[in-house]
Every structure is written in C-alpha cells, then in structure tokens.
C-alpha cells in the first residue's frame, strides 16, 4: 500500500503512523501542495492524508481513501474527486479529535456568560471600579437548561461536564425523540420547542445544506430573551444579520462566537461593539494534542482499512458529513 501524507506531523506521530502498517510505503511531504509533489508519487498513492488540498482530475488514479485533518469537511465535500460519493473514494474526518478542548471552551463560555465576564472586561478596560453590583449579578448554571444543536462527540463530552454542574440537557439530532442518559432529544421539526426551553443554546452541528442558516430570525425569535447563543460549529449555521438584529434589539441575553460567516470577522461588524458578546478568532478547536490524536486516529483507520473494516468517521455524502 502507498500512503501519501502532506500534513505536517511531529516525528513521534509519524513513527506511530508507520508502526500501524510497517510494510506500507509512506511518502511524507509535510506542508506541501499536491501540485508540488512528483507526478509518480501521486500516481501510485492509494491513501491521501491532507489538510484540505485535493488532487486535480486524473493525477491520482489509484486513490481509494482520503483522510482529512479537520473535523469539518464542508470545504471539500463537493470536490469533483468524490462525485458526491459516486467515485467510490472514501472520505474520513478527524471528528472527535478536539472534543475535549472544545468542550472545555464551551464550559468556559457558559461560565463567562453566566457570571457576566463581558461586563467585568469592560470595567477593566475603563480602569475604574464599578459599584453597580446589579450589573454583575450572575446566573447559576446549576438548574439551568442547555440545548445542543447537534449531538456528536463534542456535544456528548460537553454534556458530561454540564451534568456535573447540575444542568438540564436537551439536544437536537437526526434520530428519534426521547431521553437517554439524562439528555432529552428533539427532532428537527421540534427545534422551536428546544430553543424555547433553553437558557443556553450551543451549536455543534456540521455545516450542510440542511443546517445552513438553521438558526435564522424565526429560530432566534423562539429563544428566551434572556438566553445565550454559543457557536463553535460553523458561522453559516447562523444567519449572522438576524443574530445582530436580535442582539441590538435586546431579544437575546448575549452570545459567545468562535466562528463567523466571514473570517476574519470584518472590522466594521457590529459584533465588535456589543458588550454582551464574547468573540474569539476560530480557536475553540486549537489544542497542543491535536496532531497526536489525529495521528492515532489515522493509524487506527489504516489498520481498519487493510482489515476491510468500517472506517471511523467515514463521511456519508448524502448527509453531508
């Protein structure tokens, strides 16, 4: 088997990958574009590990499987290479690799919003003590309700943290409604019910045709006026103009946003000026252990691939993730 890796990894991770299939030929071109790689290397590759770069038509005739370095593949799923799943080339993602650190980020934002940290930050920037104690009156997470839009690895891990805090948990998923392990599940046509019951709405779903602008003006109107929105998924799951309008009108308690419709977020976005909004530059998924976990996942999938077992995180092209 010939494996082509164009994502940079630490040496110890590459050794871990090589150990998974000692007899395989691994061609390693870290941080390279496919256009920079010799044609004969491309032509003989069976497997490609990539950060997002995909081959031009006809350059990788033996390719059977692409492992993406990212959890989301909305930026590559429509590439002609896959022919919407008709080409037979499998695509797998790194979903779950950053479930731990993103869950910690979500918990941080739940606490920050509940305990009025934006107001604290404003006081610090002014450099003047505020005696307005009512402005800093917190909410308690214990007994509050968090609603997850999407319930994959990130939401499942976050649910464990929320459970420890005594929060009630709701979740929207493709499967049937019901209750499992303290989480009450809703179907897509019950979205407004979930939103209406949630004190915090956390977006973790992948971006697909079905989830584009899922949180639109109607959905925002279904949320409690005191509720907070946390988005670590994709910016286009939210109608950003509708979100800005709701925040400006005081129809939401606030938001914590790590992803945006346009990145970098434009300098003239009204979001920069809102004192009940926390903004971060698409960093929720950043962790010093990402490469190690991604390498372990790939090594596991390599063994599964050679043993003709189902691959972990294989994309369903019909669903878009």
Q: Key features?
A:
single chain, 321 residues, alpha/beta, Rossmann fold, 2 domains, 8-stranded mixed β-sheet, 5-stranded parallel β-sheet, 9 helices, elongated
Give a structural overview.
The strands form two sheets. Strands 8-9-7-6-10-11-12-13 form an eight-stranded mixed sheet, with helices on both faces. The chain has nine helices and 13 strands. The chain has helices at residues 11-20, 39-44, 99-114, 117-126, 153-164, 191-197, 217-222, 240-248, 290-306, and strands at 2-5, 25-28, 47-50, 65-68, 90-92, 145-149, 168-172, 178-180, 183-186, 200-203, 228-231, 254-257, 277-279. The longest helix is centred in the C-terminal third of the chain and has 17 residues, at 290-306. The mean pLDDT is 96. It folds into two domains: 2-97 and 288-306, NAD(P)-binding Rossmann-like Domain (Rossmann fold); 99-279, Rossmann fold (3-Layer(aba) Sandwich). It is of the alpha/beta class and 321 residues long.
Describe, in short, the structure shown.
With 321 residues, the chain is of the alpha/beta class.
CATH superfamily of the largest domain: NAD(P)-binding Rossmann-like Domain
Counted up, domains total 2
Q: Which term fits the overall shape?
A: elongated
Q: Taking Cα atoms only, what radius of gyration do you get, to the nearest Å? A: 22 Å
> Strand order, biggest sheet?
8-9-7-6-10-11-12-13
What can be said about the biggest beta sheet?
8 strands, mixed
**What class, by secondary structure content?**
alpha/beta
